[in-house]
Amino acid sequence: FFSFKIKKLFYQIFNGHLIKKKKINNYLKNNVSRKLHLGATRDIRGFLNSQILGNVPIDITKKLPFNNEEIDLIFSSHLLEHIHKKEIDFFLSDSFRILKKKGVNIIATPSLDKIINTCYINKTNKKYLVDFAKKFYNENFIDNSHILNLCFRAFGHRYIVDYNYMKNLSKKFGYTSCSQVTVNQLSDKSIKEYLKKYKSSRWFSETSIFILKK
After folding, report:
1. What is the pLDDT of residues 35-80, one digit of tens each?
2. Distance between CA 119 and CA 15 in Å, rounded?
3. How far apart (Å, rounded) are the C-alpha atoms in residues 7 and 156?
4. Long-range contacts for 128-135 (Cβ within 8 Å, ≥24 apart)?
5. Cβ–Cβ < 8 Å for 38, 99
6. Is the distance from CB of 132 to CB of 201 less than 8 angstroms?
7. Within 10 Å of residue 152's Cβ, how many Cβ atoms?
8. What phi-psi label fits residue 155: left (phi over 0), alpha (psi between -120 and 50 degrees) or beta?
9. C-beta separation of 192 from 75 below 8 A
10. How many whole angstroms separate alpha carbon 63 and alpha carbon 73?
């Protein structure tokens, strides 16, 4: 955590402020359809790709560097779970501010719904979570307790949501709807191709995709 804070400060100093603003303004100037990819481990074509430890470091716990109703689409994958509950509230509120009317905020994140379903109900893809958990535990067995605690406590996770929480929170901040969808139900072709190409079976076993519409 301390190492991350140091790196974050470094990127904010060398890529933030005027440099970041110039890159954002250049993207907005040259794109009619304005799409923001937050926590971008890989770039998606046509998006303004931001990574906190990268060339365009946008911190989602702070006010987003955009004017009101300036962005058509916001996309993030496995980012929301790394911030605290109050910061999730703030991010959803400020995302609403920068989205155009009928804009969408697409959030892919580990969810209680998906993980519990995989572990206790459907179980078809549970082996992917078991195999991953084996890397972190010394016991000669892996059960649901291992998987759930890994989700809550590892990788800098702060808060794990579920569908009802996202639905109620989005309503609180003015979104007209919140739906939980599959990858194939995504209307944005670039995001769909990105997820299918780069995300693992384990990712799909624990991840819910929420679409919040303004």
Report:
1. 999 999 999 999 999 998 788 999 999 999 999 999 999 999 999 9
2. 42
3. 15
4. 128/200, 128/201, 128/202, 128/205, 129/202, 129/205, 129/206, 131/202, 132/202
5. no
6. no
7. 15
8. left
9. no
10. 17
pLDDT tens figures, 25-44: 999 999 999 999 999 999 99
In the β-sheet with 71-77, what is the strand arrangement from edge to edge?
Answer: 47-50, 35-38, 71-77, 99-110, 207-213, 177-181
Task: State the Cα–Cα distance between residues 147 and 10, nearest whole angstrom.
Answer: 34
Strands (E), the chain: 35-38, 47-50, 71-77, 99-110, 177-181, 207-213
**For the purposes of burial, counting CB atoms within 10 Å of the CB of 40, is it exposed (0-12), middle (13-18) or buried (19 or more)?**
buried
**18-30 helix and 2-15 helix, angle to the nearest 10 degrees:** 70
Q: Is the pLDDT of residue 17 over 80?
A: no
Task: Provide the terminal-to-terminal Cα distance of the chain, rounded to the nearest Å.
Answer: 34
pLDDT score recorded for residue 18? 79
Does pTM top 0.85 for this prediction? yes
